[in-house]
Amino acid sequence: MNKDQPLDNLWLARALWDLGAVTFGDFTLGGSTVNSPVFINPKLLISNPMALSVAAKLMVQEIELAQSLRRSKLQSYDVLAGVPVGGMLLALALSLESMTPLIYSRPRPEGTGPRGIEGRYNPGATRALLIDDLITGGRSVLETAQFLAEHDVEALDAVVLIDRDMGARARLKHAGIHLISILKLDAMMTHYQSMRLIDDEQYQRYLDYVKANRAEEIVGEE
Fold first, then answer.
1. Can you tell me whether residue 9 is helix, strand or coil?
2. What is the model's pTM?
3. Which CATH class is domain 9-213?
4. What is the DSSP string of 153-193?
5. In DSSP terms, which residues pair with 39 in a beta bridge?
6. What is the pLDDT of residues 51-82, one digit of tens each?
7. Plot region of 116 (φ>0 → left; ψ -120 to 50 → alpha; else → beta)
8. Where do the structural domains in the chain lie, given as residue ranges?
């Protein structure tokens, strides 16, 4: 990919595949009793600086689009807040790309550091944009939003790189958080099948999994 090539969600989906970030098998997702045929590990983006940069640029593009609408779909914010752990890696890339200050929550003591928030902010006068790399049911995003609220930081919006579309949007909306996603897993799987990166049997296994589980609110990987 050269520097003049337009930003492309499907290019990023292919880069994730090439990195080995998309794996087929039989996986029990954290916090869920439902086995998924697909495991996604966006953290591997750190092994491809170009792909990580493209991910950050796509997020900036989507954020700017949401804010430019007559009825803005994204509230103003002062800082980025990465959702541990993968969201923190992506939030750092986004911070550098957008020149936006970054904070991160420390829900457990680390070394000599107490439980709290790392980074500069004004309690009661700071709004954060939540950043995560992957979302399923939304649990980690909600927990991070709650932790920030306990420290007088408001979070009304979240931007995620990949949405498994398993109930997170509705759960976050119920909690007053608007969700923006860059890639949908459905679109990624369709792209992989059309490129013959996965066979028809793998694709059908994914479709069967979605059909069986999408109607439920699953608290999965996140």
1. helix
2. 0.90
3. alpha beta
4. EEEEEEEEEEE--SSHHHHHHHTT-EEEEEEEHHHHHHHHH
5. 23
6. 999 999 999 999 999 999 878 889 999 999 99
7. left
8. 9-213
